[in-house]
Amino acid sequence: MGLPIAREVVESIAVQNEVCIRPVPLRRIDTHTGASEIIDVPCGATLEAKCPSCAKRNRHLRVAQCREGWHLTEEPAITPGPADDYQTHLIEQRADFQAARDQAARDGHDTADIDLAIVELDEEINAAGVRGNVIGSPVTKRARSTRRRQDAPDLPKRTMARTTLGRVFRSPHGKVFRPSMFLTLTLPSYGKVKDGVPVDPDRYDYTAAARDALHFSKLVDRFVQNLRRVAGFDVQYFATVEPQKRLAPHLHMAIRGTLPRAELRQIVAATYHQVWWPPLDTVRFEASHLPVWEDGAGYLDPDTGEVLPTWDEALDQLDRDPDAEPVHVVRFGQQLDLQGVLAGTKDADQCIRYLSKYLTKSLGRIPDPDHEGQRRHAERLGEAVRLEPCSASCANWLRYGVQPKNAKPGMTPGRCTAKAHRPEHLGYAGRRVLVSRKWSNKTLTEHKQDRRTWAMQALGIPEDPADPHRYTWRPIPNGDANLPPISVRLLRAVHERQRWRNHMTELQTRADDQDPSATQGMAA
What are phi and psi of 260, to 5 degrees? Predict the structure, then answer.
C-alpha cells in the first residue's frame, strides 16, 4: 500500500512537463479532405487547484502582457478596421432577422423563435471577429443623484488630453525618463488582526468585510474613473486582485505614467462606491421559516400569504424615500503603497513578479491550512458571504422579504450558486486581472498567438492554415470507443513536450555558441 500509484505518477510527470492534466477532447474535422482526428485542447484553468500546468501558462502570458505594455513610448494605434465580406454578410442577415422580428411583433405573433435565432446570429457575428453588440445594450439603469458625499473630498477636474503616455522628464545631460507607477490599495480594517487572524473574532466586523468584498470590483472601477479625470490623460493600467493574509481582496496596479503622490492620496480618499439596494438591517425569513412559491404570484409570506414585493417595487419604494441612505458604502483603507518605476530596471521586473505572485491562487486560500485560527476565520468569513446578497438576482434577498430579480421557484437563501459565494472567491466575483484596452495594443489572444508563432518557428513546425472555416470541431461523448484513456493521452503529451523541450535546448545551445546574448532572448 506504500507503493506510488501509477495514475498519480503520470499526472505528476505531466505537471512537471507543463502538460494540461484536464484536457478537453474534441474531434477536428477537415472540411477540405474529410479527415478527422482527436485533439486534446488544454482546459485553460487559471487556478493551480484545477490544473497547475494551464495556470502556470496563463500566468506567464499575463507577465508578458504586463511587461510589453507598461512602458510604451509610442501611442498604441487602435483603429477598428473595415468589415470583411463574411462579416458584412452576417450584418445584412441580422438586418433581415430584425425586420422579421419587428413585423411579427406588430402583427401580435410569438417572437420567441426569432429571438432565439437572433441570439445565435449575434454570437456568430462576434465569433467572426466583430466586437460589441449590433444594437448596443438595451438595459436601462436607474438614475441616481451624482452629488458627492459630504464626507468625501472633492476632486480637481482637468481637460483630458488624447494620449495614453505619461509625462517625460529630461536630465541636464539630455537623458530622457518616462517613469511609471506601481500602486497597492487595500480595504479598511474590520478589527485588529495578528498573523491574518482577528485578535477578537467576536468584535471583528465580518458583515462589512463580506460586503466590501462583494462590491470591491465597483470600487476599483470608480477609482480608475477618478484617476483618469485628475490625471488629464487616458491612463492605462494592468492590475491584479489578490488575497491578503486576512483574506480580504486588495489591488496591485501598474500604471503607465506618473502623478504626484499627494494627488494620488487625494484620489484614493475621494473614491467610494454607494450600494443603493433595499435595506439589509432586518432578517425576516431564515432557517425553516422561508417564503413559499406560488405560480403566477411569486414568493409569499408563509404566515400571512402576502406577496413579497418584487425587486423593482422595492427599488421604487427606495426612490420615493427622500431620506433614503445607501445600504453600504465601500472605501479603500488608509494604507497606500506607491513607488515610481523606470523601464528596464530590476524594480520593474520585481513589481511584475509581485503582480503575478498569487495570480494562480484562490482568494479563499488559507495561508496555513494547519492553523486552527486561520481556518476558523475563513469559515466565519465564508458564512458571512454565504448569507449576503451578491446581486439583484441573488436568492438571499428572500431573507429580507424581497423577491429577487427574475425570481423563479426553488430559490433558497444561503444556497446561491453565483461565483461570489464559492469558497475559493470569498465574495469577490470580478476578474482577477484588469487590463485597460490600450495597454499593449494587443488582446490576450494576440499575445498568445505571438508566443505560439515564435515557438512554432523555433521548433520548425508549420502553422495551421489561417482559414478559420476549414475545420469544424465536435465534442466527444463520454464512453466513445475511439477515445483513448486519459492516462494514455497524458503519456503521449508528455513525450511530445519532452521532444519539443530537447529541441529547444539544442537550439539554445547553438545560439549560445554563436551569440551569448541570443540565449537571453530565447529564454524569455
Answer: -60, 145
Of 215, 201, 202, 281, the C-alpha closest to 248 is 215
Residue-by-residue DSSP string for 258-314: ---HHHHHHHHHH-EEEE--S--S----BTTB--EEETTTEEE-TTT-PBPPPHHHH
Distance (Å, rounded) from C-alpha 298 to C-alpha 408?
8
Residue 472 contacts residue 31 (beta carbons within 8 Å): yes
0.90 surpassed by pTM: no
The Cα–Cα gap between 165 and 161 comes to 10
pLDDT in tens, the chain (524 residues): 889 999 899 999 999 999 999 999 999 998 888 888 999 999 999 999 899 999 999 999 999 999 988 988 888 877 777 888 888 998 999 999 999 999 999 999 888 888 888 888 888 888 888 888 877 765 566 666 556 676 777 787 777 888 888 788 888 887 878 889 999 999 999 999 998 899 999 999 999 999 999 999 999 999 999 999 888 888 999 999 999 999 999 999 999 988 888 899 999 999 999 999 999 999 999 888 999 999 989 999 999 999 999 999 999 999 998 888 999 999 999 888 999 998 888 899 999 998 998 889 888 888 888 889 999 999 999 999 999 999 999 999 999 999 999 999 999 999 999 999 999 899 999 999 999 989 988 888 888 888 888 877 777 777 665 566 788 889 998 888 889 999 999 999 999 999 988 888 888 888 777 765 544 544 55
End-to-end CA distance of the chain: 43
Cα distances from 115 to residues 106, 121, 122, 129, 339, in angstroms, run 15, 10, 10, 22, 52
- The amino acid occupying position 326 is P
Helix axes 85-106, 112-127, angle to 10 degrees: 160
d(C-alpha 340, C-alpha 259), whole Å = 10
Question: Nine-digit cell at 8?
Answer: 498519480
CB-based contact 19:490 (threshold 8 Å): yes
